[in-house]
Amino acid sequence: MRDNAGTMDSLRQARTSQANSMTAVDDLKSYSQIADAHADGIRKLTPAFQALYDSMSDVQKKNADLIFQTDHHHAAKKG
Predict the structure, then answer these.
(1) How far apart are CA 30 and CA 12, in angstroms?
(2) Where is this region: Disordered (predicted)?
(3) Residue 13, CA atoms < 13 Å, CB-side half-sphere
(4) pLDDT digits (tens, 9 = 90+) for 27-57
(5) pLDDT over 80 (residue 12)
């Protein structure tokens, strides 16, 4: 998680520092790098979280599920 946070911070800082000189294509590439780094971080975190989740009691799992369902940082399930 710390490595991912550091990577994300570096990418965001680079994007911010270059924002005034980026072309539209540069902007998309920069955003793509951030999105890819975020996805890579989630892929790395998932097995560790799976192990933790599997060790939880049913009550803890239900609470974790609720937190993830209501966390606005995740894609909303609307429909």
Answers:
(1) 9
(2) 1-21
(3) 6
(4) 999 999 999 998 999 999 999 999 999 999 9
(5) yes
Q: What is the pLDDT of residues 55-68, one digit of tens each?
A: 999 999 999 999 99
Q: Which two tokens stand for residue 39?
A: 């996805």
Name 12's Cβ contacts closer than 8 Å, sequence gap at least 6. 34
Half-sphere exposure of residue 25, counting CA atoms within 13 Å on the CB side?
0
For residues 20, 23, 29, 30, the Cα torsion angle rounded to the nearest 10 degrees is 0
pTM value is 0.66
* Helix H or strand E segment including 72: none
Angstrom distances, CA of residue 33 to CA of 18, 19, 20: 14, 14, 18
